[in-house]
Amino acid sequence: PPTSQIRPGLSQKAIAEKQTQFKNVATAQKQIAVHKEMSECDKALHALLDRKLQDVRNRFA
Prior knowledge:
The chain has 61 residues and is mostly helical.
């Protein structure tokens, strides 16, 4: 049974590594989600600014 003594340590290390990978993936997904939200906000802001600019142009046209 020396192998049964070695295996738990290995599997625990493997589990820890997998958990770290999952955390990294989750973090990356969160960052992507935040980035998407930010770009959506940017688009909305640009659209708003474009409309305002168009209003100003129309006023002086």
